[in-house]
Each structure stands twice: as structure tokens, then as C-alpha cells.
């Protein structure tokens, strides 16, 4: 374990350090972490970046007049992705710190609301 000092008066630092330490501890005692929810979040982020990059390149190469229709479609797609991303963070992940399994039992730890679920 790293010997990093954090300020006890910084709540974000305390939360992030605790989240990291809990994940490391649970992996250390044999839990296999499930990263599916984090992977979905990353996929949505990458799709948004791809849309923004493609829109930039098209506008740079073809000009505004030729791409303004596609830019409107890209803005709508980005808004939908951002709405899905917000939904995912607030209602699917909802403070999830660790989700994994050991010996056929699924364990998930939610730090914000103090909930631990164990499923067979």
C-alpha cells in the first residue's frame, strides 16, 4: 500500500483515496472485479469524442455551409449520448465503488449510500 499523505480536511481526496483502497483491498483478498459498468461509461465517452472529432474534420475540410446539416445531427447525437451518460452515472452506477465476485457470489459496494449487496 502506498504511503501517500492526504489532507483530512479535503473530502474529495478522502473519498477518492477510500474508494481506491477498498478496491485494492477486495482484489487483494481474492475478489475478481467486474468492470462492465465502467466499460459502458468509457464507450459512451469515446463515442462522443469520435463524433466531435469527425464533425471538426468535416467542417475543416468542407466548410460550414456543406456540413451544417451534419453538424446539427452531431449535436443531437451528442445530446443523446450526454443524456444517457448522465442517466448511467446517476441511476446505474449511483455511487458504485466496487463490483465483483468470489466463489460464485456477486458483491457490490456503494459508498455514497452505505449499501453493500451480496448476490449468489
Radius of gyration: 20 Å
Mean pLDDT across residues = 88
Fraction of residues in β-strands = 15-25%
SSE ordering: HEHHEEE
Number of strands: 4
User: How many structural domains?
Assistant: 1
Distance N to C terminus = 30 Å
- Helical residues, percent: 55-70%
The number of distinct helices, counting runs of at least 4 residues, comes to 3
Shape: elongated
Major sheet details = 4 strands, antiparallel
Strand order of the largest sheet: 1-2-3-4
> pLDDT below 50 for ≥5 consecutive residues: which ranges?
none
Structural class category = alpha+beta
Break the fold down into its secondary structure elements and pairings.
Elements: H1 11-28, E1 32-33, H2 36-62, H3 64-93, E2 96-102, E3 105-110, E4 115-119
Antiparallel strand pairs: 1-2, 2-3, 3-4
Helix pairs in contact: 2-3
